[in-house]
Amino acid sequence: MKGRDDTPEASLVERVIAGDKVAFGRLVEPHLPRLLGLARRMLPFADEAEDALQNALASVWIARAGLDPQQPVAAFLTTVTLNKCRDRLRRLKVARLLRFTALDSDVPVAADQPAPDTEIADRQMLAHVIRTIDRLPLRLREALVLVAIEGRSHREVADLLGLTEKAVETRVYRARQRLRERIDFL
């Protein structure tokens, strides 16, 4: 029977620790779409999300000696990405406070060629929902994004955020409740 350290991921982690950049690319590549999606949901601008993910990957590379070949890398990558998103959000908050930037979101929406009035209404509703999610307190937004949008279990989110499952459940409930209060159709 193979042990945990005999998996292809464990082998890649060992090569990454040794400084193999190609192995690092192979290790993180399957996680990139999910991590970028997470960053885009946490941050108001796509370019901020891309920068946060790039910083997260650079941080993982720099701290590669701390990787554990016996632990799955997905949770570690998610945690580092969330931390970089938090850092960016703090900077954006300071910039907003100092009025250096305007934080109006550009909301890209894929068009399926609906009727123009339907498309306009849908875009407006989506923009309203995104703005409402962006205004949630960070602790509620993180739990909501990870559970409702990323599709993670309460247990996974609890492990990622260092909480109990009940705390995650409560945060998701409160986030949804606040959304319902602010958006009349939910």
From TrEMBL:
Gene3D superfamilies documented for this protein: 1.10.1740.10, Winged helix-like DNA-binding domain superfamily/Winged helix DNA-binding domain (1.10.10.10)
Pfam families per record: Sigma70_r2, Sigma70_r4_2
Source taxon at top rank: Bacteria
GO process annotations (BP): DNA-templated transcription initiation
Keyword terms of this UniProt record: DNA-binding, Sigma factor, Transcription, Transcription regulation
Segments forming domain RNA polymerase sigma-70 region: 27-92
Keyword Transcription regulation annotated: yes
InterPro entries named in the record: RNA_pol_sigma-70-like, RNA_pol_sigma-70_dom, RNA_pol_sigma70_r2, RNA_pol_sigma70_r4_t2, RNA_pol_sigma_r2, RNA_pol_sigma_r3/r4-like, WH-like_DNA-bd_sf
Molecular function, one GO term: DNA binding
RNA polymerase sigma factor 70 region 4 type domain ranges (all copies): 130-179
NCBIfam families according to UniProt: sigma70-ECF (TIGR02937)
Homology family: Belongs to the sigma-70 factor family. ECF subfamily.
Name of the protein: RNA polymerase sigma factor RpoE
Species this chain originates from: Altererythrobacter epoxidivorans
